[in-house]
Amino acid sequence: MSLVMNKFYYTEEHEWLKVEEGNIAVVGITDHAQDSLGDIVFLEMPKEGEDFTQGDEIGVIESVKTVSNLYIPVSGSIIEVNSDVVEDPAFVNSSPYDEGWLVRIEMTEPSELEDLLSADDYTELISKEE
Amino acid sequence: MKKTTLNKIHRGHKAKMVDYFGWEMPISYAGILEEHKAVREKAAIFDVSHMGIIEVYGPESKQFLQHLTVNDIGQLQYFHSQYSMMLDNEGNILDDMIITRLKEKYRIVVNCSNFQKIKAWMEQVDKETNFDIWLKIRDELSIVALQGPDSHNIIEKIIKHDERIPRFSARYDHVGDHVICISHTGYTGSDGYEIFVGNDFVEEFWNMCIQQGAVPAGLGSRDTLRIEAGLPLYGNEISPSTTPYDIGYGWIVKLSKNNEFKGKQFLSNVQSKTNKMYGVVIDEKAIPRTGCIINGVGKITSGTYSPTLKKSIAIFMADREINAGETVNVMIRDKEYKGIITKLPFIKKSS
Fold it and tell me: Per-residue pLDDT for B351 more than 50?
């Protein structure tokens, strides 16, 4: 059974979002997602300063086995890309909720958080797949 | 879904399982990269019991196989193995295979995806030709591939002697009361063995290999390994419409052997006998997958990340004459990436 963090928000596409302070949030992919992808070898991430609308494709995650898109859970602009994981994507496999975070965003429509799944909802979603 | 005898062990080890042509098989245990590395540097074991084993017995088994296969079975000595193919009357490749001449029979190992097709074809040709032979399907046997430079040490500890088996040869041996057949073959580009073990003993045998240091591995790393080694796979590089020449295996076609054989007429009329199978290396952050187009050059048949080279690699069939070293544009997800054409294999065989 994959790890799900309390107090994080989730999407059906297996991203997580953690609100830091104010409108700043961090986004990554879940333990379940990294486990399904297997060894991740390349990340294509957006540029700092780019603006996106909820659900936009902002990156590509490439594992040995397959390729998957990264979608932004809520509208916002990219304020930081985790350059350590771009350099060594294995962090996404070993620490998906911590060292393996992908982008930091400034949310422009924080009310969209209501559209996201809670930890309980997400646990239920993946229990059907595992 | 069909399950191999080792299925329980795979599930017990929490391997990731996939549906592989109707067989529930492990795609990976600890991870493709780790398993790949184990084969290149130490040793790993793969359950390849999904592959089909068909044996040919009888006084005319040699003539029967001469008629069925493109290579010259007449040259095959006892306990030696031969790479070959079966073609139908129209010249379509039905499968590629390894044939081993054992004491009283020939053992053919075919791809699981083609097993039913080959079985039906062999039965049909048997009826057509009246050779004095009989066929036996050996589904009471499992196959374990032990691959990597440490394979020799591991197998020697299990069989308790160190008499080496030459490459592309096989030998019966004993582990306690159990008879096993060890074949010095593989599909990884590293040295190793494929071992035929009774289903009643295979779990114990698997655990013995692990105790001696072999890492359990799945189909994911088997694929990255064979792509690095430039080995073609039926369904990717080999299809009904390719010829043995297209993939650089013209040397297995023995048009001069002293008899008619299935596909001979077609092969005699093939105009282009040049190898069209090449590799491309991409030193950018994208992996070319099967079906990706190389602009003006051809289509990718297998692509992956090479854990050894730490670059993206792919095998493709060239539509035009090309040279190693040529720079090409590969389309990955609607974007162009620079690639360098290379001869296969991508890595030199390690021992």
Answer: no
**Are B305 and A41 a contacting pair at CB < 8 A?**
yes
Q: Is residue B310 part of a domain?
A: yes
d(CA B276, CA B269) in angstroms, rounded, equals: 18
Say if residue B29 is in the same domain as residue B168: yes
B16-20 and B23-28 beta bridge pairing: antiparallel
Q: Please tell me whether residue A60 adopts helix, strand or coil conformation.
A: strand
Distance between alpha carbon B142 and the CA centroid of its chain, in Å?
A: 16
Report the mean per-residue pLDDT for chain B: 97
The two beta strands, B44-47 and B215-217, are parallel
User: Which residue in B27, B29, B33 has the most chain A C-beta atoms within 10 A of its own C-beta, making it the best mutation to test that interface?
Assistant: B33
The average pLDDT across A19-42 equals 97
To the nearest whole Å, the CA of A42 is away from the closest chain B CA by 6
Token digits of residue B134: 């009989």
- How many domains does chain B contain in total? 2
By Cβ distance, the residue of B220, B285, B289 closest to A44 is: B285
Beta strands in chain B (DSSP E): 16-20, 23-28, 44-47, 52-57, 81-87, 93-101, 105-110, 134-137, 141-147, 170-175, 178-183, 192-198, 215-217, 277-282, 293-294, 298-306, 311-318, 327-332, 335-342
- Residue B199 shares a structural domain with residue B331: no
Does residue B274 surpass a pLDDT of 60? yes
User: Of B91, B49, B45, nearest to B70 (Cα)?
Assistant: B91
> Token pair for residue A98?
């911590």
Residue type, A121: D
Run of H or E including A64: none
Kindly list the structural domains of chain A, giving each domain's residue range(s) and its CATH number in brackets, ordered by start.
Answer: 12-108 (2.40.50.100)
- Fill in the DSSP letter of residue B339: E
Residue A129: what pLDDT?
78
In whole angstroms, give the CA distance from residue B214 to residue B201.
Answer: 18
